[in-house]
Design goal:
The protein is an alpha+beta fold. It contains 51 helices and 32 strands. The radius of gyration is 56 Å and the shape is elongated.
Amino acid sequence: MSSKWRWAGTEVPIIGSDSFKFIEISVSSSSSNVQSQSHSNFIAPRADGYASCALVGDPSLHLILRIRESLPNSLDLLPFSFSKPFPILGLRINFPCKLSSFAFLFELAPNVYSLCVLSVSGIVFILKLSANFSDYETYPIFPQEDLLQFNLVNYGDIPITSAAATSGCLVVGRNDGSVAFFQLATHHPTAPGFVQELRDDSGIGRLWGLMSRGRMVGAVQDLVITEVQGKILVYVLHSGGIFRVWDLSSRSRIFSHTITNPSVEGAPFVRLWVGETNSNSSVIPLAIWYRYTSEVGMEAIDVYSLQCSWGKEPILSLEPSMLNVPMEEGSCIDVKLASDRIWILKDSGLVVHNLFHKDGLVEEAHCYALQEEFVADMLFQSSEHPSDDLLSITHSIVTSPKDYVVLFLSSIFIRRLLHPGVHHNMVLRATLLDYNRHWTDSEFQSLTVDGLKKEIISLVEHEGIAENPLSIFYGWKNFCSRYFHHWCKINEPYGLFVHPSTGAVGLLRKNSVSVFRDLEKIELLIDGSSDEFDDQPTSFGLEFSDDGSEREILFEVLRCITSISQQLGKTASAIFYESLVGTSIISAEEIVPRLLKILETGYGSSVTALNISDLGADVAREKELVDHKNLRKFSVDMLLSLHAVGKKAASWDRVLNVIESYLQFLVPCKIIQNFDSEIVLNINTFILVQATSQIAKVMFESTLDVLLFVSYLVNISGQISMLHDDIARIQLELIPMIQEIVTEWLIILFFGTTPSESPAIEDFSSQLSSLQIDSNIGKRSWNEKLGKCDFTLAFILLLNNQSSLGDPSCILPRCLPNPQEVTGSVRGFTSWIIWGKTGEESSSFLRHSTQLALILLKHGQYDAVQYLLTLVESNSQKEKIFRSIQDTGGDWSLLQHLLGCCLLAQAQCGLPGILKEKKVTEAVRCFFRASSGQGACEALQSLSYKTGLPHLGLNGCLSSAAWKLHYYQWAMQIFEQYNSSEGSCQFALAALEQVDEAVGPEDDCYGGNPQNESATTIKGRLWANVFKFTLDLNLLHDAYCAIISNPDEESKYICLRRFVIVLYERKATKFLCDGQLPFIGLAEKIERELAWKAERSDVLARPNPYKLLYAFEMQRHNWRRAATYIYLYSARLRNGPLPKDHQQILLVLQERLNGLSAAINALHLVHPTYAWIDPLLGQTSFQNENYPSKKAKKMVKEQLAGNDIQPQRLHSYIDIQKLEKEFVLTSAEYLLSVENVKWTFNGIDKAPLDLVDLLVQKNLYDMAFTVLLNFCKGSRLKSELERVFSAMSLNCCPSKAGSSYSGTPGLLLTSSKDEVVVHGSPDNIPTTKQHKANGQWETLELYLEKYKDFHAGLPVVVAETLLRMDSEIELPLWLVHMFKDGQRDRTKGMTGQESSPASLFRLYVDYGRYTEATNLLLEYIESFASMRPADIINRKRPFAVWFPYTTIERLWCQLEDMTRLGHMVDQCEKLRRILHGALLKHLKLQKVDSDDAIFSASG
């Protein structure tokens, strides 16, 4: 017989069961066994994917044995403990050959197991295992002393078809129908009696190898071993339908029966299952799986009852089949049988049948959905909910740019891929491998949620066009399709494991483990699977009238709600949820109206355009027509259904009453919990969290469907004759109620599905040294899971120390939970989240939300805290009682306080500048709000240190002002800890406003001022903090205002000093000198601080404190002080150690020049009487070594002793002249340094002639003359000028430079050859020397013309130097002109100034230049004789001084001597003749002029 079934539950995957860490160990094989492996006729069935579960010892411990297809030589042992922390360390045993599907595990002793494994080649491995798998971490090879192995080929050459084992015994069934058992516990494989056969004769069995008999029965199809009444029974099913039961203790058969299938004759049998039985029961249930013939193509399972009588001789009888279960949909994977029920695992679901029925009525089978259905629904892979609806609805309701649509779609897909129960590590890696993304195990395990999101999104966007929504959508669609394919393949169901006594059942998959839960009543009601509602609706929590009409109305309403849900599909809830918790491109308030618009008018025009671009115009048009047809059908059906509902109810008010009753059914249940208990991170914790997320998702979507339905009623109210009062009731009562329920399930779903955040490097708790919960190792282990996909926020709430989940009904037992226990635990958990431990409704969710926020905030879940508190605050503002919530109880203040702490912590988690500023601003706003609510003081004092937040440190009762003062100071310190100066400054200023009132006499409450500080002290401290924060913000003007506002003088002075130091550090010292600050009595203090800073700073510091002092004093018109400070700067540079770097030397010299120049300029602004500076001004301990003054030292001592300021003027002072001299010397030193010539400044008391020599050597003539003009006067100046020009003249005669010049030995230059060597010139090229000489002549002419006014004899010096060096040299024409131009009036002859023609004539004669001398004399004689008539009168005057007659006479004598000696006789004679003739003529003219003069005088 067959039975109907109904949905009763669903699969709950154990999150994290796909991420086991394995210790690998290998098993070696003996040589004899290896030789036997090649036997081709002896093969055991291969394990193409195998899993089983053994319950050993502790009822909370399940050992799972698993053999994967990809690792046929390996067996995995996974210990699942429901009482120990999770995750679990597994053991992977690698065998030398492929394994069969027969593997058995038993407990030998406490914490010692025996593992029996059969390979496909017939080798049996028996391993003695320790329960502590970590013992094998150091063993690469399994210990031989714990290993026993033998080959079944040695005991018979027949293929094995089945095997079973119990502790110490192995039973195998053969292809020939024989059954043998191996006594593993009592015999060695080589001992007689180790192997015995189960056969029909009653004699004593003999060894297997010594017996032979004919084949009596068909091949062994399956066999099972159980223990009943102390007897070990072997149940054997042969292929021909023969069923036998053997007693191993007597080696005898106690039952034999041929089973026939009443449905189809000759159907082959596949498997046999034997159920457990109680000690008092006489019935053993059997289940046999058989297949019909290929023509029928169907499978079925028959359940039989084996009646037992355990007397002296056991009597067994097989009753006819009590249950027939046809496999109508899906093939059978595994079956588990108990005394009262049977579990059948099919690829379409798990079906549970009761074997015994009450009153003879056949009950419906209960079916549990598998996770494949849930994953397909989440990834839009089911045919009922395709992903195309997501694109259409998104484009219809979103009006944002395309890039926002892409971001929104990506966020929906990535959230669903990482949803608990959908996300699977191995599946994700396999999918990413399709995209050629490879990771090592450690790399993949190190990825956090954010890392996974980035990797997946980058892959999808790389496959498509990043800005094209359609391309990105198809990229996600393809990715999800691949992911779902891998999910089904990698998570293939392998088998079941059950606790028959409790009804608990688990599912073993290829790479994960699951349990099952019952559906909630609302799920049964929504699915329409509950016949119980028809009979007993009150059991669902609903109270209806006795006539059943209200129940019928509810059914009609639910059908309408289902129609709306089906019309929009599952994508509507996905979009709504994403807009609430994820990427928000449209507000949640706008989504419902836009979804209703789709229900009324269909998709928008943008969807049509999208379909045309994707499908083409024809296909898009056809699709549009189909959508329009479906929309019209939906609208008509809805309108007819709603009219029918209204007619049946007689009024819409009654319908709304039914809906309101149904809404109470959707509210999270309330369970009062009275005591605390600690919860650890074990498997049951993962089960509870996953089941909670499943139920919350269903409830959230169901409530959203109701919201859409009632909103749809309002939109079409005119078409269904709804009264205005009914519409108002929906808008004012039902919709707010539904929105509140949506919010509650949204929060539960958010906690259950949102991965936890990775702990920040410096988060709120770690900075305050309070993040660590305690030293418990288990808690630290789960703390390490933060940031992983499989560790959601719900775990943190569950595992918080001393969780409030205390009711036994809310905590899963520490063993495998049955489906009812899983669902019951979810009710307790959701009740605690929404209602708290006590379930008091008066607190609503506002107070309990702060408790949840404290738990999350304690563990660094800042984003979750912000979302939770923001959502609660937003909902509270919508309530009518918002004002009362804000004014009483302190809950609202506590919420704002926690939200502020959260926002402040978020700002420190590496956010970019704009977002960080926004977070800080919002945090400031929250803290101010927290301080303004009534009851804030008491509420915030209730926060304990254990919360991970900084304690407020409040004690006792405080007045409003005292409370705000304390709270603002606390907030100021918190913001300061997070380096948020802007927020700290705001709270410091706010605290200042409360000081006067808080510390006044009216503050009578205890604790307002525990340190008994005065108002001035408090204000001083607060103003000092304002100064610090504004200074950190670089608000220099505000910082200075804080200084001058500070009433505490000591604090003010400290701030002022800090202000100066910071200005130096930030190179913002100009701020002090721009004239914008009102010094208000602080000028002297500022100057003193600047001077103190200058004395103790590096003289080359940037910015320079002396320059700042100079600018500061100049701005205040204190010229002398400005000059003093800038001169001290120059003096410190001069007296300090000389840098080694050449560029630094030049820099120092340039700074000295700048300082001296600035000092000179400043003193020029002072009246000449006071134009001097005191280098000891300001008690500066600068000792001027270059201006020694014994009197000054004495007066300084007197000043220090007697505090007399009058004698200060008598010590050494510096006026402008001294400064100018030092400036000149420093300039010269700078120029020499440029030429890499060192010179040491030795003061200004004497002329630095050595400096002049160096300057002339380096051709720095301008500087040399400047030094001379400043340090030499009168004859000393002339003599030094002569030295310089003599040296310059020598430079014009390089070929003669080697000659000596006694007057200027220090100014003589080296020869041209030496000069080339010094300058590194590679060649001695004449043109180079000629070019240089030309430049020297020009320089000589320039400076001689410039400085001959200082000394008229300089041309004589130059000419004499040149002639002395080379008597044959041709004097430059410009030099000759200087002699001639000295006597422009030719009527006076050749006499005149020092550089006269007579001087030149004399030089010619002295150096043997007779021709030039003669010509010069003739020139002036002729000029004298040929003067104009108007000038003749001048010639009539006495002229004895006009011509150098002595020199002329000497010239004549020289010519005579030359002639006499025979040197240049002809030339000399010629010159004498010319000279003689010219002199005669001149003398005649003189005679005439003399006579005229005498005549004129006598007359």
